[in-house]
Amino acid sequence: MSPVSGSALAAPGAERIFHETMLGLRDADPRPGYRRLREKAPVLLTRDGVLVLTRHADCAAALRHRLLGGRGGAPGLGAVALPDDERVLALRTVQDGMISADPSGHARLRRLVSSAFAGRHVEALRRSVAARVDARLRALARTPGADLMAGLALPLPVDVLADLLGVPETDRAELLPLVGEMNAAFRHDGVPADRARAAHAQAVLADRLGVLLAARRARPEDDLLSRLAASRADDALTADEAVGAALLLLGAGAEPTAHLLGNAVHALLAHPGQYALLRREPSLVPGAVEELLRYDAPVQVVARTVLEPFAFLGARLEPGQTVLALLGAADRDPDRYPEPDRLDVTRDPHPASAHLAFAAGRHCCLGAHLARLVLEVLLQRLVDGHPRCALAGPPVRDGGLALRGFARLPVTLAP
């Protein structure tokens, strides 16, 4: 099926299906809504002028289109309605960072930090990631019914990103709570008090990171903070840009990875036959990582902003309009994946870029390799050391709209 065929820019009831599906992301299964929307209006133009896409081919084309970018601010950041005196520098530096930069600015910022996520740098973290996973699994195993989110999924990505940045262990005591509070700025449904705390947390983190960056300028080490601090002629980051890049990595990297881990473990334990298969054949783990990313990724929706007028999938788009790629729907597209709603760790994996869990194009997730590594190590350690891992009670969905995941995931780990 071509990306254009079967388009329906308007269909009775389709917009209601779209809104109900989006509101249900926090606590309901979105798959029925995705299916209904894809069948009724795979290309939907809402009354507000938002173009909504649900098919894999259409979403992939949008994510890679040169006239669709991130300019205008990341979803959730620009909507933080705080008085001017509460709009701290940290929030502004994140808004001016990689997510919302225009194409030339984005390419410059991405080039300066991407080396830290190259294969060799990420692979060098495998041993430390494994050690951190082992320590947290041992702690969880001591308490049957322990919460996997609080005990592992939420703190682990913060520790791993802190390792990558080079944040000293002595400076990490308040890192996790500050990152958690800062991420309230990314929530569409956060109340003003949450947003004020997020702004304060960003200000505190910006101050801490600024001090560390200044120290790295004077005495560089082999870490990302040193690379951000180093001068690179015309490409050199300003102090605010360097702080903003570090904040962005912590804010945009920690919570999605946490929900990736939680979603993956939940999916496997909800399908014990699949978990048993990984125990019998641990060589399937790398492919299972890709299947779990496809099956229930934390980022279900990505927004792109129209940069110049152009026609796309039957719609005439103007600058400033929004295109929404429903990644969760795209990765359940039956034209792309046979039996897409079935979890199958033996599914023949497409090339790593085939599923859209990390988006695609110039704004694809910079930390994709690192997220894959953390999930792979966790799965290997679970199937090797805790073959009788099981859900210990009903999970509790996270209340945010920006990410799909769990607030609480009780598990029992047993050898």
TrEMBL record:
Domain of life according to the entry: Bacteria
Descriptive protein name: Cytochrome P450
InterPro entries found in the cross-reference section: Cyt_P450, Cyt_P450_B, Cyt_P450_sf
Species the sequence originates in: Actinocorallia libanotica
Pfam families xref list: p450
Lineage summary: Bacteria, Bacillati, Actinomycetota, Actinomycetes, Streptosporangiales
Family: Belongs to the cytochrome P450 family.
UniProt-listed PANTHER family: CYTOCHROME P450 YJIB-RELATED, P450, PUTATIVE (EUROFUNG)-RELATED
